Amino acid sequence: MSQKTMWKIQYINLCINVFAQKHRLTSQVAFRYLQQYKGLEFLDLCYEAEHLQPLNDTQDSLRTVCRQNGGSI
Q: N or C: which end of the chain has fewer CB within 10 A?
């Protein structure tokens, strides 16, 4: 596995855990929510830009993407 892939996995994992803490969810529930409402797809597709942004901005973007796809958080 390339170093870039490892960094991407670590970043997405961090985003999941921060999202979980922010919304008082378990990491597993946060993962399922983000998966269902395309937050993980967003992080994967937009990694190059998002990992350069402040984490709070990424969290705001995650909430927006999920809401646009039917999420309620």
A: N
